[in-house]
Amino acid sequence: MGILHSEEEIVYHFFTETEFFTGTEAVITGPDVNHIKNVLRMKPGEKILLSDGKGTNCLCEITELFPDKVLAKILPEEVDDTELPVQVTLYQGLPKADKMEFIIQKCVELGVTKIVPVDTDRAVVKLDVKKEEAKRKRWYGISESAAKQSKRMIVPEIGNVMKFKAAIEAAALDDLAIIPYEDSESLPGAGGMALTRELIGSLKPGQSLSIFIGPEGGFSDGEVELAMKSGVKPVTLGKRILRTETAGMRLWDYYWNHEVKISVQTEEKFRMSF
């Protein structure tokens, strides 16, 4: 559950399935019913923000409360689009302990579109089918919770665990794919931090970005070579060696600065069209 603050009131944020939206009404089921009725003690007439996790975002007004569902009227007020103009997929090398949970939570809050766990050469964690299923269920719950908290219009998908080669092949379909590598300065065409900023700065609204982050031991030389042969750009994150749970956030520093520029440019084009 997220909370939207306004000058007049606090509006709580919930998700429901797409099929529970009609033209004028929405239905909430599941655990949120108890939370609305018995924890928040909400009443008919109170407003909520409701999303289907796939891009639909509506301001609603509760009309009726039942033991197993809550009915809400969809209001005509427009809701701000909180999604980034670029689709971002994080290919995360499987980290140890509970680090993946932290990574998912923070990256969802920052705007990532999809997170794919990757089985790499130096990943210590290995998941069998049963463990992967349980982990993905928990990871999705964390993604949904973070999406509510940060007022996302979507719940970022948690993909199946992929082998590194398969992940590289999938990322090749995106407009830009980058792989932070501590020895990138020694590679042909190295451009330091300026190249990192230039690549991210080249993105335009509607395009897609894939980011590869290695596990605690980083990527092997063979993996980096395979990535480069497939068109993935090796980049540097600076002189420091970062932890796997903070490396992605370092890239977000650059992207957020660029995202502000995209937003300004888009707004200027919109104004010029009138």
What does this structure look like?
- The protein is α/β, with parallel strands linked by helices and 274 residues long.
- The chain folds into two domains: 2-74, Hypothetical PUA domain-like, domain 1 (Ribosomal Protein L25, Chain P, Beta Barrel), CATH 2.40.240.20; 87-266, 3-Layer(aba) Sandwich (Alpha/beta knot).
- Helix content is 36%, strand content 23%.
- The strands form two sheets. Strands 7, 8, 9, 10, 11, 12 and 13 form a seven-stranded parallel beta sheet that branches.
- A hairpin with a 4-residue loop joins strand 5 (57-65) and strand 6.
- Helix 2 runs parallel beside helix 3 and helix 2 runs parallel beside helix 7.
- The chain is elongated and about 60 Å long.
Topology:
Layout: E1 2-5, E2 10-15, E3 25-28, H1 31-39, E4 47-51, E5 57-65, E6 70-74, E7 87-93, H2 99-110, E8 114-119, H3 129-149, E9 157-158, E10 162-163, H4 164-171, E11 176-180, H5 192-201, E12 208-213, H6 221-229, E13 233-235, H7 244-272
Parallel strand pairs: 2-4, 7-8, 7-12, 8-9, 8-10, 11-12, 11-13
Antiparallel strand pairs: 1-2, 3-6, 4-5, 5-6
Helix pairs in contact: 2-3, 2-7
